Amino acid sequence: MIAACSTAWPDEPALRPLDFNRDIRPILAENCFYCHGQDSHKREADLRLDDRAAAIAAGAIVPGNTGASVLLERIHSTDPDVLMPPPASNRRLADDQKKLLDRWIKEGAGYAPHWAFTPPVRPQPSEVRQVNWARNDIDRFVLAKLEQAGLAPSPEADRATLIRRLHADLVGLPPTPEEVDAFVADADPQAYEKLVDRFLSSPHYGERMALSWLDAARYADSNGFQQDGDTWQWIWRDWVVKALNADMPFDLFSIQQLAGDLLPDATADQKIASGFNRNHLLNGEGGAIAEEQRFNNLFDRVDTTSTTWLGLTMACAQCHDHKYDPMTQTDYYRLLDAFNHVPESGTPTRFSSRIRVAPPVIELPTEENTKQLATLEAAMKSLEGEAKPVIDAAFAAWRAGLFADGDPADGNDLSRGLTPLLRKPEQDRTADDKKSIESQLRSHFDSKVKAGVVKDLPQVVQYEAAKKAFDEYKGDQLPRVMVMSDAKSRDTKILDRGDYLSPKGEPLAFAPPAFLPPLPAGGPANRLGLARWLFLPEHPLTARVQVNRMWQHFFGMGIVKTTEDMGVQGEYPAHMQLLDWLAVEFRDGGWSQKQMHRLLVTSATYRQASKVTAEHLAKDPENRLFARASRFRMPSMVLRDGALSASGLLDRRIGGQPVYPYQPDQIWEALAITQERDFTYPASHAADLYRRSLYTFWRRTVNPANMFDMANRQTCNVRASRTCTPLHALTTMNDPTWVEAARVLAEKAMQTAPALDPRLTFAFRRVLGRPPTDSDMTTLRHMHARQLVVYQADAEASKQFVSVGESKRDESLDLAEHAALSSVCLGIFNLDEALTRE
What we know:
There is one protein chain. This protein is mostly helical. The protein has 33 helices and eight strands. The two termini are about 30 Å apart.
């Protein structure tokens, strides 16, 4: 239960003033609204507890009179037939929850609108005692809560930790020892701020920040389902990285992705941006019903939009009124109408055995594509000119031979559609009839003629080969990114229980949910209107949702833990005033994400050390008051990139087609369930093996095997997960990526220094940034000595170990020493400190 598990606040609930949203609504939402909420179809006893007037009218609540309130009678009952929640629900109110409800009714049973559905207003920071600690207003809000709780903020982290933390959060790569040394030695009072600005200007900033956005956008490089055809959506992914690096204001960033195609004189880039809406699964299986799949796509777009920008769970309103939030089924289908005018069939088109995308698309040929297509087309047309007379002559001979035996034609060798046309007297045939006869005859008999008469003629063989080469190249190599278009007008109706075969009622036009601000007068009632509506100054959700996810990124957990749900069942904010201040700052500051990120990471709150004290564990075990920096395991993609970077293997090119790094043998083939295409894993080579994880091909049916607990990219995901599976440790100790990175790092250490200690220090600092302590060095020497004994006794094992990976080994290095030092480097990569954002 949310209320039961929430943070222990500094002032005891029995003493502080009651707040309906914080203290009462979570109890009712968790235990009562499912049966006594706004969904009239499932409402029990015709009782609503989400509406004060209805609850009073039913006698469930009598403000100020605890004895007469049936609600209290039912929750305190010992009779299982009377008790609420009923025992069969497996819910039970805690004693402190019952006391809160008693007190609430005694004090008048006041209701209030849900906190997230009222526009944020900029609060003033509270007065604090430690005024010198605060670096900006974020710190003043945080410090006020800490002082109320009797907690003090933690000291600032050391500079080596700070630069590593910033690297992980802003660019996703570890700092070099030289960068650490320069920052530690920099006496400039603005050294930290300058470092932040450098990272914000890095082209790798956009790559790091894109990771969470791609999770929200359910971006992948294939369609999913049985065929799991490849797509060209990486073009949209590159648009995201460029937009983030350019600090495109978040309102424009969003509007272009939701409705870039509807902007006046939309550019190619703006149309590409609208591909956000086309990143969903595509079912091309033989039994897939196109219209059913089209509605599945629509449902996905509504759910993704509501989660990404509104922080609401709307999926249940697809079938019935929402049981918790004031979202009706009518609201849901009005919102769906914004996406219902795309000229799509619902299923993908086969462009090649590999590529399956669903129009509308835009073609984006590269210079190489254009040149190659022109070459192939010229060859095809030249050979067609040579082959056509041969084919026509054979066709004429066959046609004459069809009637040469003198028997009446019975039509048995003709398609049914041709028979009535041929039986028409020639003088009665229209021009369209004649064209149809010629076309259908060629279609029906061409293969027979070629197979039986001209298949071996050189002109035909060469032409067919040229045509096949042209068609295959165009289908397989010409980039086509899926985009949006409102070219097809459709009626949108409520679907009974969400069934696409059961539309009911009158057509609905787009409108926002009734409990949120209306569209401005004269605004377009389409996707563009929806996108602009999200950024109205009075909109209560958009800014709150985004700054909460920013806080999650930099502090490990959102101010509202349920980042995907700010509705009635979501968590009450750990710091309401701070959340609203950040939301207004973001909105009024021009929606600059870089500006907000700078504000967050330059705060004293962010710069704290992460050391946990006994007092922290006693008073704030989850760190919801922010008395220390949060310490958490870095995402799998960031860990892989860090190992490649520390070893010097990382290829830092920005953008481009997906790559195929090391994966277990037959990882795709073993899970393939169709013979319609070749599912052999097309392993990359050379520099492509070492590109950032952002560019790894993401197959929906077989996610990259070393990316544990990442979002599966099948549905919208905005809540960060932390992997704790032992399989990840096995991977970072045995996967070719890490083993090769360790081997190359050891090689660089041996090439850099002749003695053991400098080599160990070099490797340690490349991974962790800081110099090793005396204790660290003792451990490293001991590990090296043990491994050296093992490898000196087994030359074959040494050779196998240092041969992992495609990069070439320096054969001049001592084999056993190289293997032993590689083992040490692999151990360093697997230190808790190396895997953790301190």
